[in-house]
């Protein structure tokens, strides 16, 4: 007999009924390792910036290379997944992401750093589409809740990235960064062991992911990509510049990286809350709420500062990150005939715009100051509200009787 967990956890556990928890745990672990490789990059750059004499623009360009490489790769691998299936891409991608990250820590030149971060980004791009497709199959009728659990693995990985990078490099120097390959290796081996089970989930549930057959909605999907791109401006602005902003204000590198980890951990909490809310009240409502809240919280962080600012930026992290799982589900529902490619584009191609925005923000920081660049990050979600209002306003886009039955319980 199951014992209900207290408080919000009980609601999350209840919402996971009908979800294949073994598969989702495997996928969340893979997501953690893949996004750990991305999450460690800003912390790595705090140490590499003085070593390689990088400007803010050059620093942001490193983030851009990783995001663009991942962005280009994800739709390509997603198309491949939709046509042939490729469960092996998950362990391969996780390993490549970790290896590229670890080697970048000891890069002696900026050009080589860009190449290695690009390799890491390619690994991230290889993992996501197939993983999101299998996660959709494993989620059953509770797609937003299941995808929120999957997204939480990535959010935890992002949050651990700065902490573990700082822990490895601070006492050991840049060679300590080689230890950052460990999560990728361990998780890749685990996914190889689970390869048969995940392949079975993908094959046995293909075409039965909790939705009825429906026509593609390409126009709605395009609008969603615009919203994701605008949301990514705030995400990558905070992701890239929070540690550097704290250092510029006289705090230590450890403090800046720790605050970034807290921002990303707040995103974990936000994601776990947003998934069940989206199942109950609708994807669009939850997405709009997160976009409405984000700009004011970012401005409070920059303009107020202190303890209030730190709390505000953590709340901003929760708001911005919380809907990653929601938008993955929306992308799959808007393009049900090509869910891996849709997932890859929603996380990859559109999110790559955030990396481009990070470089633009870096240029603003170099030309004006970092404070102005951070203020500019609030513009993305503010404009995103206007675009999100044009998305189809229904909470059961293609609800099944099973979904309705569970919602009535």
How would you explain this protein's 3D organization?
- 79% of the residues lie in helices and 0% in strands.
- It is an all-alpha fold.
- The protein has one domain (7-397): Growth Hormone, Chain: A.
- The model is unreliable at 1-14, 207-212 and 395-409 (pLDDT under 50).
A few lines on this structure:
The protein has 19 helices and no strands. The chain is mostly helical.
Key attributes of the depicted protein:
single chain; 409 residues; mainly alpha; Growth Hormone, Chain: A; 19 helices; disordered N terminus; disordered C terminus
Helices and strands, with pairings:
Elements: H1 7-15, H2 21-39, H3 41-52, H4 56-84, H5 89-104, H6 110-138, H7 143-172, H8 182-193, H9 195-204, H10 218-248, H11 253-281, H12 283-303, H13 306-321, H14 324-334, H15 339-349, H16 352-367, H17 370-376, H18 379-388, H19 401-407
Helix pairs in contact: 2-5, 2-6, 2-7, 2-8, 3-7, 4-6, 4-15, 4-16, 5-6, 5-8, 6-7, 6-9, 6-15, 7-11, 7-14, 10-11, 10-13, 10-14, 10-15, 10-16, 10-17, 10-18, 11-12, 11-13, 12-13, 12-18, 14-15, 16-17
